[in-house]
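Quick entry, no commentary yet.
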Amino acid sequence: MFDFAVPRRTRRLGLTPMIDVVFLLLVFFMLAARFGQDVAMDLALGGGSGADWQGPPRLLTILPDAMTLNGVPVEDAATALAPLMPTPDAPVLLRGGDGTDLQRLLEVMEALRAAGFPTLVLVE
């Protein structure tokens, strides 16, 4: 009936089903995870618009640790810009200086929008 003298080959568990499960879990968590909420900011890009400039120049250069308005260092951009605005919706030109990262630029833009400057134009 049974031949106990002949050793039987032991079955090894295959790795293929385990790898399939791991990949399915990976796909599930990639699709289920929220990587962050995208935030959009309305922005006009300067150049080629053909519109006439009105009022005094308003060029705000944003540096990593300071800001200059028309080449003059300023502490508070909103206070310094207020006397130069002929109308509340007049454009303000923004330029990132050397070494300025995008986060710093966006922080200044949000602060200016909150201070009542809706038209910001980013120039190179």
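second:
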Amino acid sequence: MTSESVSPQEAKRLIDQGAVLIDIRDPAEYLREHILNARSLPLTDITAGKKLEGTEGQTVIFHCLSGGRTAQNANVLMKAASPVPVLLMAGGINAWKSAHLPTIEDKKQPLPIMRQVQIVAGTLILIGVVLGYTIDSRLFLLSGFVGAGLLFAGVSGLCGMASLLLKMPWNRPDK
């Protein structure tokens, strides 16, 4: 069984005819912005064995941010939706927006955690470089420390900065 890729315009046409759109991004990404009537089923849940329910007789269209996660995990997605037909939306929500199709955006939701990590790491590296040149060359160590942390996160899959940022008040869900 193979999956077929569809353009955002074709996906919209199919959705209007009753296809089900599944957003496989993380819940925080979905809450920040999503396509109207898209159902959230994170890839982490799917890879953990969660099956898609309530789609009997309907075509299922999966999407992510840019299409990479859906393409890389096509086989897993097809198994999760089996036996219904599965399509992958090319270019993800980014292509959907580029096609001037509407999304629902909630800017009150925090940025996805990896974007927060990139902002904080970039800021700390820049501060370390500026302070290293202007105040004391030992302050370059700040940039080196952040770089080492990023290297460790990439190799191990464990990101201390992401863990710390997840504990910040803006990343805690309202209870």
